[in-house]
Amino acid sequence: xxxxxxxxxxxxxxxxxxxxxxxxxxxxxxxxxxxxxxxxxxxxxxxxxxxxxxxxxxxxxxxxxxxxxxxxxxxxxxxxxxxxxxxxxxxxxxxxxxxxxxxxxxxxxxxxxxxxxxxxxxxxxxxxxxxxxxxxxxxxxxxxxxxxxxxxxxxxxxxxxxxxxxxxxxxxxxxxxxxxxxxxxxxxxxxxxxxxxxxxxxxxxxxxxxxxxxxxxxxxxxxxxxxxxxxxxxxxxxxxxxxxxxxxxxxxxxxxxxxxxxxxxxxxxxxxxxxxxxxxxxxxxxxxxxxxxxxxxxxxxxxxxxxxxxxxxxxxxxxxxxxxxxxxxxxxxxxxxxxxxxxxxxxxxxxxxxxxxxxxxxxxxxxxxxxxxxxxx
Amino acid sequence: xxxxxxxxxxxxxxxxxxxxxxxxxxxxxxxxxxxxxxxxxxxxxxxxxxxxxxxxxxxxxxxxxxxxxxxxxxxxxxxxxxxxxxxxxxxxxxxxxxxxxxxxxxxxxxxxxxxxxxxxxxxxxxxxxxxxxxxxxxxxxxxxxxxxxxxxxxxxxxxxxxxxxxxxxxxxxxxxxxxxx
Lengths: 377, 181
Hints:
The complex is a heterodimer of chains A (377) and B (181).
Chain A: E1 6-10, H1 11-22, E2 24-29, H2 36-48, E3 52-55, H3 59-71, E4 75-80, H4 82-87, H5 89-98, E5 102-110, E6 116-120, H6 125-130, E7 139-141, H7 146-163, E8 166-172, H8 173-177, E9 179-183, H9 243-258, H10 261-264, E10 267-270, E11 277-280, H11 283-298, E12 303-308, E13 310-312, H12 316-325, E14 328-333, H13 339-347, E15 352-357, H14 366-373
Parallel strand pairs in A: 2-3, 2-4, 4-5, 5-8, 7-8, 11-12, 11-14, 14-15
Antiparallel strand pairs in A: 1-9, 5-6, 7-13, 10-12
Helix pairs in contact in A: 1-2, 1-7, 3-5, 11-14, 12-13
Chain B: E1 4-12, H1 17-29, E2 35-41, E3 50-58, E4 70-75, H2 78-84, E5 88-97, E6 110-114, H3 116-124, H4 130-142, H5 147-157, H6 163-180
Parallel strand pairs in B: 1-4, 4-5, 5-6
Antiparallel strand pairs in B: 1-3, 2-3
C-alpha cells in the first residue's frame, strides 16, 4: 500500500510539502510574516535531500537567486508577503521575458506598505497580475484549504515548468497560519511535470527557438552556452532592435499562456446548477462563502459558489456563462474591490455585480455574505 | 451551525495558548475521528499582548475556521477575558484562571473559576504547564475529545524530557475539573 501520512499542518507547512513533492531543490528568499514558515520549513528539509536553501540579504536578492537556481536546472521557489512581493516585481518581469520557470509564494497580509503583518488580506490580487511593468503573462493559483495549498503548490510548479514562466501561489494569512488535518500524497498521486530539456547538440541550441511555443531550457553548466537578458532578444538570447522579432516575441510570451487557458483554469463549483444568486471568491473568503451558501440553501434561497483556483488568467468563460444564468454575482474580497473589476468586465450588463469588502485585518464572516445573499431571495 | 463545536484558548503571548489549540485540534482529528481546524490571532510582539487560538471541531468539512458562537472558552488573563468573552454562546462554558482574572464578566454562559497557574506552580513547580492543566480541564468538562486522544496529542507535542510532567499536568486537569462540574 502506498504511504500516505495524515498530518495536522499549517498552510505554510503544507506549502513546503507541496514544493518538495513537486521536486523543488532550491529556495532563496528573505523571511517575512506571514510567510516565514515556508522558508523555515525548507531551510530544514532541503539540505537533508541534497537541495539548497539560502537566505539572501533582501527580497530582491531572494528572487534573483531563485531565478539563478532555476536557470541552473533546479526547480526553484521563493516566498514572501505584500511588501516583499512589491520588491520582487522587477525580477518577476525579468522571469516573464527571459522565460524562467519559478514559483513565487505570496502569503497576503494587510497593506499598503508594511501594513498589518499578522492580519489577513487579499489586496495583492491585482499586483499578482499587474505588479511588474510591461505587457506580460501571469498565472496565479489560489487555494482555500490547507490540503489545497499542498496540491496547488505542486500545480504551480507544473505550470511554471510547462510554460517556462513565473507562477504566483496566492493565499492569505489565515490560510498560511491555520492548521487542518491533511494527507501527504504518495508518489504518483499527483502529476509532476518537469521542464523540457534540449536534445540537440550544444552548438545548435537556441534558448528561444521559434520552432517551439515553449522552447526547451538547458541547465547552465551542462555544456549549453547561451545568453539571458531582460532586453527583448533573438532566438539565441542576445538583444535585438529588430521590430519584427520584438513584436513576435512579445506576442509569443502572451500566447503561450493565452492559447492554453483551458488547461490552466480550474474552478470549484458548489450548487450552481439552479442558482439564482452566486458568490465568486477565493482563498479563506471562499470558506466563509461556502458556509453562507449552505446556510442560504437551508433558508430556501437558491445560492451557489464559484471558486476559482486559478485567478490569473482570469476565469472569463466560467464567469461569463454564470452571469447569463443568475440575478447577481456577489464578490466578497479582503480589499477595496479588485476581483470585482474583472467580474464586472466579463459579465457586462448580464447580471448585477455586488462587492463585499473589508480591510480591517479581520476576515469577511459568513454572516456578512449571508446578509447580502438574502437580498436576492 | 449546530454541527460545529467551537473552542477558544486565550491568554497572553507566550503562555502556550496556540499550542493548546493545536493539541486540542490534533486530539480531535489525528487521535480522534473528527475533523478540526485551528486558527490563531496574535500581535507583532512575541511575548505579551492578548493572544488567542480557536479550534473548530466537526464531523463535516469545516469552512469558516474562526469562532462564531463559542461552546467553550479559556481565559488565562484579565485582558484576554475582557477582550474575548463576548462570543461565548448562551449556555457555553467560560473557564477562567482565577489567579489572574479578578473582574468576572457577566453573561448567560457557565462561568467556571479555577486557580490554574497556582496549581501548576504549587503542585508541579512549573507555571509553563498551566496550558496543559487547562487542556485536561476542558477535556473533562466538555467531553469533546477522549482522555486517551488528548493524552496522545499532548505527548506527541512536548519534548521527551517532559513527558511525565505533562502527563501529571493533564491528570491534575482531569481531576480538578470534576470538582467544578
